[in-house]
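Design a sequence for this backbone.
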């Protein structure tokens, strides 16, 4: 065991974060995401909710300040309400973003979001069932 690493972060996920380089992307996906068919490297964390995992990840994961929006979300349909989980993400990222790389989210329509996820370094599939909970993080430099 190591000190200071939240128990929610598995050794496999910590290893992936250490391997990732500048501009690599991590997708933290909800339970409904087609991770197995869209990603080469998938880590399953079925008993985990995304906000808890995101808070643990952001302790170690610098966001890319070379791009305008290093955090991307899947756009909801215009007929749907704004997902409440997005405000949770916004508050958490603003609080934990030490490099001030985050200004706002980039929104990507569903099918292009799926295409982008195929290039992600890792997809972390959670058990979260919140709608539109998927979140892409682009890694910066320490």
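Sequence:
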């Amino acid at each position: 065991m190591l000190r200071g690493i939240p128990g929610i972060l598995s050794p496999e996920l910590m290893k992936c974060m250490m391997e990732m380089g500048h501009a690599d992307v991590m997708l933290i996906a909800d339970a409904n995401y087609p991770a197995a068919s869209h990603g080469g490297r998938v880590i399953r964390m079925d008993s985990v909710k995304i906000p808890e995992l995101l808070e643990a990840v952001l302790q170690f994961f610098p966001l890319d300040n070379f791009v305008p929006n290093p955090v991307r979300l899947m756009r909801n349909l215009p007929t749907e309400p704004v997902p409440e989980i997005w405000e949770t993400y916004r508050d958490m990222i603003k609080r934990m973003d030490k490099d001030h790389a985050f200004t706002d989210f980039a929104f990507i329509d569903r099918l292009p979001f799926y295409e982008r996820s195929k290039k992600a370094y890792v997809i972390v599939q959670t058990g979260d069932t919140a709608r539109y909970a998927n979140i892409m993080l682009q890694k910066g430099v320490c």
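The CA atoms of residues 59 and 96 lie 7 Å apart.
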